[in-house]
Amino acid sequence: MSSRIGQCFTVSLFGESHGAGIGCVIEGIPAGTPLDLEQIRKRLNQRRPGKDQYSTPRQEADSFDILSGYFMDHTTGTPLCAVFRNSDTRSKDYQSLKMHFRPGHADFTGGEKYRGANDYRGGGHFSARLTAALVFAGAIAEQLIEAQGIKVMTQVQGVGPLRAESFETLELTDAVVNQLDGEGYAIQKSVEADFLKAVDDARMALDSIGGIVEGVILNVPVGLGEPFYDAFESRLAHGLFAIPAVKGVSFGKGFDFVNMRGSEANDLFYADGDVVKTRTNNNAGINGGISNGMPIWFKCAFKPTPSIAKPQETLNRSTMQTETLEIKGRHDPCVALRAATVVRAMTAIITYDLWLESKRR
Amino acid sequence: MSSRIGQCFTVSLFGESHGAGIGCVIEGIPAGTPLDLEQIRKRLNQRRPGKDQYSTPRQEADSFDILSGYFMDHTTGTPLCAVFRNSDTRSKDYQSLKMHFRPGHADFTGGEKYRGANDYRGGGHFSARLTAALVFAGAIAEQLIEAQGIKVMTQVQGVGPLRAESFETLELTDAVVNQLDGEGYAIQKSVEADFLKAVDDARMALDSIGGIVEGVILNVPVGLGEPFYDAFESRLAHGLFAIPAVKGVSFGKGFDFVNMRGSEANDLFYADGDVVKTRTNNNAGINGGISNGMPIWFKCAFKPTPSIAKPQETLNRSTMQTETLEIKGRHDPCVALRAATVVRAMTAIITYDLWLESKRR
Amino acid sequence: MSSRIGQCFTVSLFGESHGAGIGCVIEGIPAGTPLDLEQIRKRLNQRRPGKDQYSTPRQEADSFDILSGYFMDHTTGTPLCAVFRNSDTRSKDYQSLKMHFRPGHADFTGGEKYRGANDYRGGGHFSARLTAALVFAGAIAEQLIEAQGIKVMTQVQGVGPLRAESFETLELTDAVVNQLDGEGYAIQKSVEADFLKAVDDARMALDSIGGIVEGVILNVPVGLGEPFYDAFESRLAHGLFAIPAVKGVSFGKGFDFVNMRGSEANDLFYADGDVVKTRTNNNAGINGGISNGMPIWFKCAFKPTPSIAKPQETLNRSTMQTETLEIKGRHDPCVALRAATVVRAMTAIITYDLWLESKRR
Amino acid sequence: MSSRIGQCFTVSLFGESHGAGIGCVIEGIPAGTPLDLEQIRKRLNQRRPGKDQYSTPRQEADSFDILSGYFMDHTTGTPLCAVFRNSDTRSKDYQSLKMHFRPGHADFTGGEKYRGANDYRGGGHFSARLTAALVFAGAIAEQLIEAQGIKVMTQVQGVGPLRAESFETLELTDAVVNQLDGEGYAIQKSVEADFLKAVDDARMALDSIGGIVEGVILNVPVGLGEPFYDAFESRLAHGLFAIPAVKGVSFGKGFDFVNMRGSEANDLFYADGDVVKTRTNNNAGINGGISNGMPIWFKCAFKPTPSIAKPQETLNRSTMQTETLEIKGRHDPCVALRAATVVRAMTAIITYDLWLESKRR
């Protein structure tokens, strides 16, 4: 079904960006887990729009209310529902859009699918606003995988033609891994500055720009993922493509494998003491869909934010005539910046789900 | 669960490459459907190894036996089970592999996941042999979507550094669409010849090479796919990453979006008579995870076949020492060639599943 | 998973009786459905405790807040979340229960299952309070099946040794069918008076009493239910046994079939014009798990409310000594009375789910 | 979906009684389990028709072929497919039935649901023949739960008006528990003889008779079952009602609770050393849907076999006229006798599934 991800650890999202609120119901958190609410707020703050000029000036408080599944500062083991009330919703910004499909958005497809009954304001259920609830659930999942020694991190690895050093070659010391825990976008600070300049240039041009978010999962136990359909890549890609604006996902060398020979691409096994490792990690720690213990690194291509201030042609759904559209809302010039936190959240959710699933055997 | 894909039209795979056989159980075929067995055999033949020098010389008859769900030449509406008995299985080719992990294969991960109880011969349940059952199910799904006017096709679009013209720009006339129905790898015949030469070069070098399979779905009704998690991209990518050797999936401009501006990337809506279309199709016919009626085009990156004849270093799991491995089995030098049929099958399955799902509303 | 019922029309429940609130997330309501809020409130009122002396004097306003999936008085097609804030929760009534397991309740099992982290106040997530959210969802499902001409109704058919006339023999005219729509417990008013007296007797004795709720579904299309596992009986019984205090479910003649011969039990087919009917309806309109178009009638045995005012022996979980327990909370002397509305809700949910499922074929 | 039961341990059934064969695909068996094939054959033999005059004289060899998931006498952890080829299928016995609905069977409902495309011979997919595959899967599940110390047993507890002593009061010593392991129907031998006489009387009268199968699960760990929807009762009843001819299911006192007071019905907790027990077990070891460690005992009402030799009225689907039907096939006069083994199988499957599910937390 549409709103729910996961087999053992499940997250159901609900809500619309300009309705009463959004939220999630989470099942599968072990009973008696003390939630780190500060950590949850830190992640929400990283996703939060309006915190600098690189994102939309909309102010979303992103404060949440836990309605169930939480008692005396611990989870109860039963479904946990969290609600985020909507506040700063300038619906009138969207009223001119009622009859105009914004290019690159779900206004047309959502309207058709739901026969005109969809909440069209700000994308409604299709709004990236729902990722706040996802980040909430992801922060809990992150806490649960960290208790198993597993660590997820993400960075912005590309903006326009610019690229930061990849997790493939970065030495992932604790200092590096923790560097982006609270703020910042890329490990390599000099490139990060260039990224931000490129984003600002796009914004000044009343336009937007694409980006790459890269993720890595460290200390994954050997054996996560299922054959045939539930390969680790399948489950994670399913989640990643659900994030608004993702149009490509690759693991390890990804599309660069195309121009490689097998003798280069294969990662050779060796023993490091008792532990089986591979000399290279082109395959991103996954063989036959199952984790092999090496870091799982992957990339997500984000298209440029479709909402741009520059006038665009669109269709008036009442007249079926082409008209010029000027989007007056407040939008991120590069969705990849804030999306790094959303990718981290989704990755933590999928990883914990696969970890739980492997316990059943 | 691992072996089953789909919500409404489901396919469960079972079997190992060197056991008694492989097969599938399919649910969700409408009762009273007359199966086109010739079409199924044609698709199986396209996937079948051993038919030319570009694939492994293993001969797999790929003859199937329908055990249930089929009566008087029509489906009954109840589960359809098809079995493919294994025949040409030279298990002894694999016996030396019992203690040696082939690089890039699931020998190590499968052995660990199943605590040494996995059938290690030829990859066992992880073998690409299981894609025969997938192609069987996909041929049925193809028949079912064609009855709704939907058409799926795939081609090899890249081998090594070479690229054939993409479905993005090819004019998809009926002749073009049907060109690869029975044989052939790419629409653009001159490049196809170069592809085959590159594959042969890799084979002569006792090596293998990567490739790109591209797919397109035509005449998809508006409204397939579900928000939030079950975006069309999410569901299709889930299936595509389950195909052995896929390490990257992208929709439309995919990773090329990164270097685009929103004003270039957005596909502008216009009315073609009563029909809403977009002037470009960078987003591959999907907005907000929901089909918009334009062609859905996508690419899968296939890594080079990990089984190569060239000697490679590996680990002996009993001694935990590094040894040299020479893989004596018979393998494809470029897995992408035969995989085009598998991608077609998986795409048909997912598309029909989403089509059925949309009927519930 | 625990909190969710349904395949196509799904209802996820969350909440605890003495926490912030309870609620549900519903998926599968067709977009553009105008909800009849008055009808929802009527059903909630039927379930509501405190409305007469036959139920607990707890006052639960049962007012709900729809957070999502509802826009301009119509459903949007995306998940609908409704929240019921808790108000009249006298938590201190339950504090003495922290260390004492109430007999017949989930205090012991829930505590063990969740390693002591469960919200023990008033049963927490196990409380019958959650049935308010179920009745909300059921009222929507009822509206959806009525749009298809299907009608569900329930009555209290037994209390202690007393029995009212069954739906098996009652002539189900419109007047009879609508008789219990707003208030009342049994069609046969003379027996209803006896029921209420028996309940009051139990209450005066500081005790409780069991009962039977009977249901009937009229105008079910032929063909609902699935072979083998998802028989109509299987799916409906799954839901009915989830209702607190249900310990038996039977369809048609149920346990009376044991003492019948096949020649008596078989319902003989005949043609009533174009319509195939059966002369008797011992099998409750279901053959081989699939509806045959005749009324589906069934019974649920409710045990006596386990919470009674009479002192009972119990175990003190800290000392592991036996102690005397006096339950001071406010409880229904016969849970079956209010449960008739809950059975109606669950039946509507399951019926609509199976109806949607049958559309996929 | 229709053919699959279970969340973690899943069994998918396929096949028709007069087609090529029937079978199942099982997922969730731990890798490396050595299957006890003798035990599987013993259970199949208990279910097998034709072994005495109390069952149909059809001879079904019930020999199976394991196609996958089994290697060097151990399970591999991947899907296990077993096939039972059909042999003694006298299809011509059924040809006269093509146009006549047998009363009490799925001939009419299956024909309507599948628009006439169903395999009508011997009930097709609705045939009790499929329970052979269920017994196969159940024998494996039984082995898996016994490895956890959990024991399932079943007996015929009623035939017509006769009743054998119930598991409620029988002292369940090892000798008693193992008494029906290989043969026999009821623990109480004197009543068993009466049962068989009653069945034979029905057979001589060209008729059939109903029965009760009772089950008990011993040594269930505390905490199996899930709130709200996946109560132990809900999950087990779902499975039991899928067994052909089951029309009622009750747990513990079941329908006898109706005439009880709460003070009688409640099972009082006490400590037996470290172990929490209840003085009575009216609630069948389940509180709030969760197992409490006491024996889980339950009853299934089986209707009389609908296939009887006595002439019956039926409808000719071509003429829509009433005609007389004489069923010439070979059928059990009391389906409950052989069904005890099927109930045991289903109970083992559901119990192991819930046990696996509880491990995820």
UniProtKB/TrEMBL annotation, chains A, B, C, D:
Keyword Cell cycle listed: no
Catalyzed reactions: 5-O-(1-carboxyvinyl)-3-phosphoshikimate = chorismate + phosphate
CDD domains, per the entry: Chorismate_synthase (cd07304)
Superkingdom: Bacteria
Entry cofactors: FMNH2
Cofactor: record remark: Reduced FMN (FMNH(2)).
Keywords tagged on the record: Amino-acid biosynthesis, Aromatic amino acid biosynthesis, FAD, Flavoprotein, FMN, Lyase, NADP
Positions contributing to FMN binding: 125-127, 288, 303-307, 330
PROSITE patterns (UniProt xref): CHORISMATE_SYNTHASE_1 (PS00787), CHORISMATE_SYNTHASE_2 (PS00788)
Annotated residues for binding of NADP(+): 47
Enzyme class: lyase
UniProt-listed Enzyme Commission number(s): 4.2.3.5
Pathway in which the depicted protein is active: Metabolic intermediate biosynthesis; chorismate biosynthesis; chorismate from D-erythrose 4-phosphate and phosphoenolpyruvate: step 7/7
A single MF term (Gene Ontology): chorismate synthase activity
Keyword Flavoprotein attached: yes
General function of this protein: This reaction introduces a second double bond into the aromatic ring system.
Subunit structure: Homotetramer.
Family to which the UniProt record says this protein belongs: Belongs to the chorismate synthase family.
PANTHER family associated with the record: CHORISMATE SYNTHASE (PTHR21085)
Designated name of the protein: Chorismate synthase
Organism: Fusibacter paucivorans
Lineage: Bacteria, Bacillati, Bacillota, Clostridia, Eubacteriales
